[in-house]
């Protein structure tokens, strides 16, 4: 009886693995094909855009997986973080992201921002709060205030919000957009880890097409 039970579990496990094998990923089921391809920031690279929000709990749990995944990306792939703005309260965090990028400290503060919001329960809803936070990571406070309120950051926030909503047709976070053509969500993929495996699969497809 134990042998039969073990064989049954093995069979079911193999069946589940087969369903998730790369050859079984299907457009419209595991990922979506965008109706109109969106231009990427660098045509020489395969661009993967992570659509996220610092206020999103699922994004907080996804972030370490994305960070580890990014470390093993090949040189022909670039990861871009794009902060969604579904509501007015989210704009301050999108501004914070682009301010950190403008100051050249985004990589240092990306995960600490998540930790501050979700574990320390800090609220960074204005320029002063962001200037204080970024100054604690070595930024000049006055430079942070100027960047946060700058036209450049305002334009980047607006352009990204429009691209996420109008071009990518995204309605939730986290999601991934691969090379401006394919959108991956946890709803279709099933798990956060599977989202990254589907991204790997699509990257390989794009590489093959380019060759």
Describe the structure.
The chain starts with a helix and ends with a helix. Strands 1-5-4-2-3 form a five-stranded mixed β-sheet, with helices on both faces. It has 211 residues and is α+β, with helices and mostly antiparallel strands. It has nine helices and five strands. The radius of gyration is 19 Å and the shape is globular. Helix 2 links the parallel strand 2 (46-52) and strand 3.
Poorly predicted residue ranges: 1-20
Strand order of the largest sheet: 1-5-4-2-3
Count every beta strand, where a strand is a DSSP E run of 2 or more residues: 5
Percent of residues in beta strands: 5-15%
CA-CA gap between termini: 53 Å
Tally of DSSP helical segments: 9
Helical residue percent band: 55-70%
The quaternary structure here is: single chain
Compute the gyration radius: what is it? 19 Å
Shape: globular
Q: What class do helices, strands and sheet pairing give? A: alpha+beta
Mean pLDDT: 91
The biggest beta sheet reads: 5 strands, mixed
Q: What is the helix/strand order?
A: HEEHEHHHHHEEHH
